Structure formats: C-alpha cells, structure tokens
Amino acid sequence: MTALNTKQYDSQSSYLPTEALGTPKLGLKKLTEALMLSTLMGALSLTAHAADKKAASTNVEKAVPSAKAPISTRESTNGIIAIVNDTPILKSELASAVATAQARIQASGQPAPSPQRLQNDVLNGLILRELQLDMVKRAGIRPDENAVNQSLGRLAQSQGLKSLTELQQALDAKQPGRYAAVRAQVIEEESLKALQQSQVARRVRITDHDVDAFLASPEAQKLQSTEYRTIHIRVPFSDDYNRITDSEKKAAMQIAQQAQELLKSSDDAEMVLSQLSAGTAKNYIAPVQGGDMGFHPAAGLPIDIAKQITPLEIGQVTEPQITPEGIDIVKLVDKHTNDNMIIPQWKVRHILVKKDERNSDALAEQKINDLYEQLRRDADFASLAATYSDDPGSAGRGGDLDWVAEGQMVPEFEEMMKRTPEGDYSTPFKSQFGWHILKVEGVRQKDVSDTVKRNLAREALYQRLAPQAQEDWLQELRANAYVEVFN
Description:
alpha+beta; 4-stranded antiparallel β-sheet; globular; 11 strands
C-alpha cells in the first residue's frame, strides 16, 4: 500500500512536507550550505569539472596511501584545495561555487560578507556535501524515479520545453550525452534530499504531549485551516542567475514589474499571461509561466511563498522576488477559513500484479485478467487478494487499504475508485505500479479537522526543530571524517 500513497491523514503518520527541510534563514553559514545542496538549475553546467576531478582523484590515490596521512601544501599544486576522506575538492570547484553564492546573495538582497568568510563557508558547504555523497554511496540510496522525473520536468519547463523528450533533445544537441549527465546530477540531488530527510527525521521526536501543548499555545491559532486562492506568475531565467547577462536580468525585471501592475487590476490569470506574451515578453528568451493556482492551504506551499501570501490582504500583490530560477510575483485573490474539514472517503480493497523481472507487462496483464474472470464467477475478492496480490502492505489483509481520501493514491487509482459504485469492483486498470483491480466497500463523509490540525501542529514543530537537528547531524558527520584543507 505504501507505494500508492501520496498523503496521509492519520494523526500518527510520519508524512511531512518536503519543505520541512527548506532553507530557513539561519545566517550565512546555513545559506551557503543550502546553496551547495540545491543545484537543479545549475545541473546544466555540471560537467565542467568532471574530467579534472577524476584526474585529481587518481593523484590523491597515489599521494595518499592512508586517509590519515597528512598532505603538505606543496602537494596541493595540482589544484586540490581539500581532501574529504579520499575525495578531492578542486580549487576550480571552490571558485565556481563562490561565484554562484555571490550571485545568489546579491539576487536575494542580503548584505554581502567578507570574501574570506564567504570562501570559508562555501568550502565548508562543499566538504559537507562530499561527506553526504559518501554516505549516499555507502548506504546505496536511490531516489524515487518519479521524484527524479518531476525535477527534470521542472527543469524542462524552466527552459520553455514541454517534455523530458524535448529536454533530452535540446541538451544532447548542445553536447552529446549532456542529458544523461544532467539526469545523473538530479539523481544525486534527490539522493541527498532523501538522506537529509531520513537523518533529520530520526533525530526529531515529536510526542502526542508535544502536539497537545502546541495546540494549547497562542501560536496554534496560525493552524486555522485557511485556504488561499493565488495567482502565481514566474518570469524564468534562461540559465542560473549567475550565468545570465545583465541585459537579461533587466529585461526579466521589467516583465515582472509589468506583471505586477497587470495583477493589481485583474484576477484573470489567462489575460495577464496573454498580455505579457503579446507585449514586451514576446521577445524574452524564456516564456512567462504561471496561472491561477486555485485554493490551497499555506502549509502546502514552499516556505518562501507561504511567508509572502499569508500577510496579504485580498487583492494585494507581492513585490517581484528574485530567485535563482526566475522572478516570482504572487497575488492573493481570495481566502476562506474552514472550521470543519469534511472530506469524502472510500473503503477500498485492491489486487496488484506488478510488472518486474518475473512478469513482463503482457504477462502481468494476462494474470490480472484471469483474476478478473474469477471475480466474475463469484470468487471472493479478499481471498484472491490474499493469495495473488503483489502489494505486501495490503495482501495480508485481503487487499484492504482501509479508508482512502482524495489525493492519497496515484491518479489512475483515484479515478477508477471514484467511478466504481459502492459494493462493486472495477475492471482491470494500469498504473505506474502495475495492473490493479479495486473494490469499493463503502463511501462516507469524514470530518478530519482535528486530524489535520494535529498534523499541521506536527509539521510546525518539525520545522522548528529540524534546522538544529540537521546542524547537529552535519557537525557529527564532519567530526567523524578525515578532512584536510590546504592553505
């Protein structure tokens, strides 16, 4: 069952938003570490140091017979600035990372630190990154394929492309094999994200008593189930901020300011996008993105955007906000508060036949059709699920998934679930997990207000505790590693 779920309403759930490990403003050190660990747009230039680093690794193996053997400054003339366990960090890597950090700090409007402090903090970020990559390799962490494709999809969209196929064609046209290299970099970033979440989650313990205490505090008033309807417009950059020209930066800001003025007088997102495309934006290198995002809770938004919209009055528009990927403008169109959150739920069983090394897609389809014929001959659904279902989470319970709400299952499953009458079972259908048959045993309306508030309280407590837990973990990681920095 777990592979199908995308969200949990259970108050004991460990579900946490990906934003829980966002980039809270904890000072320059935290900012630069976050910059080193967030390189989706920078993936377009990831091959810059690959050959040099491979050669440097060979030199390190020759020069360092033992990880504990110190290396003199004289031996760093090959361009190595630091050794992390047995992995080199090149001077060229540091210079590139410092330039990226400088550009992003400038874009964010934060005061610039001294060059020496910035270099030290960026180098520390690179060292911590190498240590985490080493953990990823040793633990054999591989990210979910869907998460990788979603990240690549966002990258494609930022480049004005409609699919991963178009992204692959565009990248490989510039340099053969570039798409494979970019995909490898995205897999690396998603692996790091998975590692960070698992390490921090095991260090943050939130009890029911903690939740009760939080709900009794004045801060809990922020957990009212307010939903916001927003229009979000983005003027994307054609490349990472530090690699685009000053003229493109100026052109992007002019379009963002035009979008801001249009949004002040209109709630029609399509009209705003149309006017931007027909006006000055038509000559801009990357197409303007966005639209009406509908109603959504602030807790479901990235932290930076949530902070922008929650103080707004209805009808107000944010100032253009520069990010590494583009300039964002958000308008609060409407908001409402629900004291009671009533949602529909379906009591569901299912049978899954996976496509894997043993089962080709054709064989899996044949098996599910055979099971469907048995159901048509009045076979017991729970018995078939217990005997034949490949879902280990539910097969032992006769395929029982308990009560399922909207948004918990993959789209193909949810669509079939809603179309199947109560007391009946579906025809076979396919999802990314294999072939299914589901049975709807009941339908109800459920008030989940208390459960949602408790989950929001857990998320708020997690976001409060996670940064320190992450800091403690990173300090432990470095303290237990061999690190040699050359002056």
